[in-house]
Amino acid sequence: MPHDHHDHDHVHPEGLSPSGHPYRTDNDAPLSYWQRMEIAVRELLVEKGHVTPAEIAAQIDAMDARSPANGAAVVARAWTDPAFKARLLENASEASREMGFDIGPLHLIAVENTQDTHNLIVCTLCSCYPRNLLGLPPDWYKTRAYRSRAVREPRAVLREFGLDLPDHVTVRVHDSTADMRYIVLPARARGTDGMTEAELTALVTRDSMIGTGVPRQP
Amino acid sequence: MPRLMYMSDWDGRRWHDMGGQDAGPVPMDGHDFALWEKRIDALMVLCGQKGLFTVDGLRRALEDMGEEAFETMSYYERWIAAVNQNLIEAGAYSLEELAGRMDEVAQRGPTYGEAQGDG
């Protein structure tokens, strides 16, 4: 085996990549059929003049730069700026662009969690996700189990994520499409009154913006 | 019209329309994306930007693959199959060109790292 060594010095201390996903083991498994197809398709597109290697690299860099930190910045701004929050709930695409985030042509809707309402997002048909603000979706978001059950027994699904909501809290589930996607504006935790926008950003987790979690406590 | 008889037993859903169905616990394990997966995602975005095909074309191909593909192939394996199908249909390259290039790629080495090219 030409690659039987396993270096793990790139592992983040928490075991998660910058985009919030666990690292996979080294990519030295035998070349698969579908990997061969990816290489062939990419090379043919470049040779035919449809794309350039620089465009592909730039697109991957942009993808890697998108992480839940983008969404967290939007949430913290909404927590500290009532006028921005109103604009976010009115038109989340425009409000996010205002903060410099590229949302593309899609219609983004922010749904607000309150003391008595909890929102959860899903894509039952495929894997649509607010990737411009959160990065690529976690694997569980794309599973049959989550897609099937989130709309039918959301409270049971949330318990699997460690979130046991009281009966008086209404749960609203939002089913995304390719062109219309949701992001949850989580409720600001108690005891955060004196915190700055930057400090608040650190409390906002990926799952709190999907609705499968709540923000960290300070 | 035998097809209509079959349709009368059909619940109106295709396989991918799985909202509300029974299913087991949500598997919480995940992985970071490998370079070949990110490249597929990037190719999809770029092909859309350049008008070669649309996200609807991607989804049509994914949904037509059927349930067995969903159960046996990984997410980005399904995506490259769907991207390729749309590109063939769009005339971006031919099946013969694809087959020839895939054979050539296989000759470069036994791992992705050795075969990946420089793009």
From TrEMBL, chain A:
Keywords: Iron, Lyase, Metal-binding. Residues 1-13 have a biased composition (Basic and acidic residues). Its EC number is 4.2.1.84. Pfam families: NHase_alpha. One of its GO terms (molecular function) is transition metal ion binding. Residues 1-24 are annotated as: Disordered. Residues 35-212 form the Nitrile hydratase alpha/Thiocyanate hydrolase gamma domain. It catalyses: an aliphatic primary amide = an aliphatic nitrile + H2O. Fe(3+) binds at C123, C126, S127, C128. Belongs to the nitrile hydratase subunit alpha family. This is nitrile hydratase. It comes from Roseovarius tolerans.
TrEMBL record, chain B:
Residues 15-108 form the Nitrile hydratase beta subunit-like N-terminal domain. InterPro entries: CN_hydtase_beta-like_N, CN_hydtase_beta_C, Elect_transpt_acc-like_dom_sf. Pfam families: NHase_beta_N. This is Nitrile hydratase beta subunit. The lineage of its organism: Bacteria, Pseudomonadati, Pseudomonadota, Alphaproteobacteria, Rhodobacterales.
